Amino acid sequence: MSIFTPTNQIRLTNVAVVRMKKAGKRFEIACYKNKVMSWRSGAEKDLDEVLQTHTVFVNVSKGQVAKRDDLSSAFGTEDLTEACTQILAKGELQVSDRERQSQLEHMFRDIATIVAEKCVNPETKRPYTVILIERVIKQLQQSIQIQRAHMRLRFVLPARDGKRLKEKLRPLIKTVENEDFTEQLEMVCLIDPGCFRDIDELIRCETKGKGTLEVLSLKDVEEGDEKLE
Amino acid sequence: MGHTSLEKIIALQKKTPHIRNLCILAHVDHGKTTLADCLVASNGIISSRLAGKLRYLDSREDEQIRGITMKSSAISLHYTTGNEYLINLIDSPGHVDFSSEVSTAVRLCDGAIVVVDAVEGVCPQTQVVLRQAWLENIRPVLVINKIDRLIVELKLTSQEAYTHLQKILEQVNAVTGSLFTSKVLEERAEKDAEAQSSCTENGSGDQVYDWSAGLEETDDSDLYFSPDRGNVVFASAIDGWGFSIHQFAEMYSQKMGIRSSVLLKTLWGDFYLNAKAKKIMKGAQSKGKKPLFVQLVLDNIWSMYDAVVTRRDKEKVEKMVTSLGLKVMSRDLRHSDPKVLLSAICSQWLPVSQAVLSMVCEKLPSPAEISAERVEKLMSVGARRFDSLPEQTQELKKAFLDCSADETAPVIVFVSKMFAVDSKALPQNKQRPLTQEEIAQRREQARQRHAERQAANQSAETLKGTELNMLPTALSVKTAVEEDNKEHFVAFARVYSGVLRKGQKVFVLGPKYDPSLLPEGCSAADVLPSVPHMACCTVDSLYLLMGRELEELDEVPTGNVLGIGGMEEFILKSATISTSPSCPPFTPLNFEATPIVRVAVEPKHPSEMPKLVRGMRLLNQADPCAEVLIQETGEHVLVTAGEVHLQRCLDDLRERFAKIEISASKPIIPFRETVIRPPKVDMVNEDMGKQQKVAVIHQVKEEQTKYPEGVQVDSTGLVTLTTPNKMATVGVRAIPLPEEVTRLLEDNVELIRTMEQFSLFAWEDKTLDINQKILENIQEFKVKLESNLQGRKWRGAVERIWAFGPRRCGPNILLNSVEGYRRPSVWQCLEREKETEKAEIRDFDNSIASGFQLATLSGPMCEEPLMGVCFSVETWDMKLSAPLAQQDSIDEDSQTAEPNIDNQNESSDTHETNASSASSNRSRSGAEAAGSSVDCYGPFSGQLIAAMKEACRYAFQAKPQRLMAAMYTCEIMATAEVLGRVYAVLSKREGRVLQEEMKEGTDMFIIKAVLPVAESFGFADEIRKRTSGLASPQLVFSHWEVISSDPFWVPTTEEEYLHFGEKADSSNQALKYMNAVRRRKGLYVEEKIVEHAEKQRTLSKNK
């Protein structure tokens, strides 16, 4: 049966409906698919590329147009385009397939980038590339050695607090690189960035502001290129 | 000739004058390996039937598949003509990508066989190899190969072939000639320069007259190839024949009774035979006679091909065979393929190996004849003159020249490359035929095992436990096997003096070793003092290189090519080995191709990273030309000489060194972000400002989205931002730095770092000692900065520098323009003596600097570091609340209250500390304390850092932003005919030609151009392909350059509309780069998901 058989069910194609309830009324506008998010993010600047028609509906699929009175009471204007832009900006919509896909991709990339930025290979102290991280995340059964990049701190504590504080700081510090306890305790150490606030707080409270804390580097990574030889 | 025994070769190795070290050089596909095959066959290592087809020296699988040689490999051959000779033959690759392998081969030789295709003539690589041979001072001989193609393919007559061959010979000699000329000119120029410097009063007028004198004076006649000199062989390696004029001269002198010396002189050239007068006359061409060469030599070969291949005349063939006195097997006579018969006849009549090897033995020098000039060249590294070397070292020259195999002579060995060998191929591990007892023993073992297995099967159900016990043993066996598969490195080397013995203690001198640094009097036996680039080791094992096989040796006397095992710990790529520590390292190899194709490699399975790194290390060692490095971004980058080379490296990584799956991709390209002065003209070069901006769709939403709440931007680009808790407000302005300043900052990173360290110490009231030299440098740097920062805007700017960034030493400046705030300058290390007026540091000074560091580390455009931007802090107000102040005053209890100097801050709480007052309390401790006022926004210092960072970013965005691209300078050598194509490729890739000049004495042009790194992938390869290898670029990173186009540009004026259209879809280079980076980093890219709303598929899915 290749003859076109009409059905009583009419489907809208290439239409994304944006709804908004305002002043007790429901308003809808007919937009193109995959375009509303672009408009909201500012990538699409041409309104005609977003709206199918500059008309505000009560129900798009039934073709019921909103009444002029309702419009003016809800939006304070009778200008249809103005009403449309308001609905576009604030209304709710069903995110369409490609928009969702690009959102997910974007988020995935974002996560991978953050991981790659914050973490290092503990053996080489060098970051992993984003592509590698992505691949690891996708194939979950695999694992690589990864470690949050350490923060390098330097603090100077007055002698009388030094000993006491050192014990308290001990569990928060990963590695001590340099320690000098002559008239005051001076330490350069690597910590997990998550502990920074604790350490900061501890030093501030315990020494009543006499200890100094300085961040030498936010993340401890190897700098420069290394020739493999 | 039978298989030469190992003992024979060992005996021959001791006779230095009878050794010939030579390599075969040619353009790709001119028949090097085929020729080598013929020579190998002459020693009975392979069947002469297979010669030319087997390509014995191409031992790698991909070499066999692709049909090109990829590595140089050596084989020792034995040859007898009255005297016995040992010939160490090295076959080299012809492809451009592997010219590094050629360099390694050439270094170890004394002579070279240059092969030229009789049809193709001189090709680019022929020129290259001739140059390489020239540079290494080794003597070449010529083989014109594939003469059969002239007969069978081109169907030339013998007369035509003769002229053709003459032409080829001329071409080759032209190349040699130009090399010679350029050398003479160079020497002359040097001499001139010396003369000029010595007697400047002499007018330069007389120089003009004798410009050609240098050329005429220098004798060049022995450089050229000519058959009558006996250094040319005509051959067809595939058919197994080859001859030199010498052979024919001998033959005919017997037959015709003409003296062979006369024939030798006249057989090549414009001579003809006057049959009546029985005389050889000159001027064959003008009289229309057949030259002697055609009549006596070529005609014979032509008629042979005619009879055997073309007409297949059996009777005639038989007649010829008998007249030549050859014996041809009837099997060959009956063979359907005429080529078989042909090679059967020819290889007996004119065996190519005979011709080539006798020429080699006669014409090429033995190791003992090494020239003093070459020795000096080898020994003087870099620009150092030979006479500047230490005395002891100079004495070694004698050892070189003597080339003696005495016990007392110092051992000097040069290792030109390391190559990987499967441990299975090592002679120690090779399978040998089993003796009778061994076989019996094994049989016994097998029987036992069988019995055990049967016993185990019977009790399998009952005794599961035993199996478990056996499991670990099985595992250990497996690991043992893996251990066995380890790659072993063998050093490809040559002994230049003395005798290298197994178990001998020697010094391994790296390429950067300097004998003049050596402490007095120490020898290999001593315990080694730590000298840079020097190691001491024991020679593990010595090998004779026989193509794919290795034979173990106990000692190798001077003049021989050998393999040394167990050196991988000490030698990276090349090295010099000697028993005398005063031996200088040899000059580095001349590489014609430098690595330029960069790719990032990653393992398919990320967990295999360590394997990859290990594999890359091995690859680096095994390949003279490949480079591997880990970049700051964490990428593992492999740099190779070309695409074919890359392919081989990847194959090697996959199958030999890493044994994992890997993938290669383009590496990450770095960018920088900067601001520029507002441009005066728009994109269509119209004056800006005068024109009316057309109302545009682009501007509809822009203004509202740009700045969030709390940020004020005035028209001059001053950005004011308040911290979330409303305590502090900073005002920042971004100013572009002049280009010279940026460069200055970049060049003086080390100085800045020192200054930074000094300030840090001063902060702690300690002092750092900086030596006078560095202080002077800093002073000079400061003066330079001042001279470059002129004008009203920059008045006193240098003194007011607050910090450099990112990472405290980058090419961006933080300027303190806060009224009334005088902090210690970054130059305090210079002013130590002066004890300047007391400068104070405000609270949270560090936070502002940190904010600046963060902002400069990643810019707003695509999170790449900034460059050449100055952030000027113009206002900085703080309103610290009362509780904070109290807390601070508690902190300050030990400190005497100081009067508040700073009037600008009304709040009394900003305590001022003297930077010079040596109390244990410092302002920063107070700062940290103040930060403890915990509000919902976190510590105050953090807030200020964030506020400062944001302020910098907005200030940056308020100015016209530009992207900076890394640029390569690229130097291209090209001949005149391909110049046009070079330009085409350059312009396609956004390159810019800086200069173009002709190289003196040659027909080569040198083009200097700059090219963005982002466009450089495949550039070298494209140029090579488009110019058929006649131009080869060298890329070196040079500088950062601002990309002139604005990534955020949209057409706004009417003119621009006309020119670019409404959307300006015509590619914006900067935008393209920026979006690529943003996409890679997962940042938001302003891109529509669908470009055209109407052009989507309009049907819903379920229909």
Describe the SSE topology:
The complex is a heterodimer of chains A (229) and B (1103).
Chain A: E1 16-22, E2 25-31, H1 36-41, E3 57-59, E4 64-65, H2 68-75, H3 80-90, E5 92-93, H4 97-118, E6 119-120, H5 130-138, E7 147-148, E8 151-158, H6 159-169, E9 173-181, E10 184-191, H7 196-206, E11 212-217, E12 226-227
Antiparallel strand pairs in A: 1-2, 1-5, 3-4, 6-7, 8-10, 8-11, 9-10
Chain B: H1 6-13, E1 19-26, H2 32-41, H3 61-66, E2 73-81, E3 83-91, H4 99-107, E4 111-117, H5 124-135, E5 139-145, H6 147-152, H7 158-198, H8 213-217, E6 232-236, E7 241-243, H9 245-256, H10 260-266, E8 271-274, E9 279-282, H11 284-287, H12 292-310, H13 314-324, H14 330-334, H15 338-349, H16 352-363, H17 372-379, H18 391-402, E10 412-422, H19 436-458, H20 464-484, E11 487-497, E12 499-501, E13 505-509, E14 534-538, E15 541-546, E16 549-553, E17 555-557, E18 561-565, E19 575-578, E20 597-603, H21 609-622, E21 627-630, E22 636-640, H22 643-657, E23 662-665, E24 671-675, H23 699-706, E25 711-713, E26 718-722, E27 728-736, H24 739-747, H25 749-763, H26 772-788, E28 801-805, E29 812-816, E30 840-841, H27 845-857, E31 869-878, H28 882-891, E32 913-914, H29 923-930, H30 940-957, E33 961-975, H31 979-988, E34 992-998, E35 1004-1012, H32 1019-1026, E36 1032-1042, H33 1054-1060, H34 1069-1081
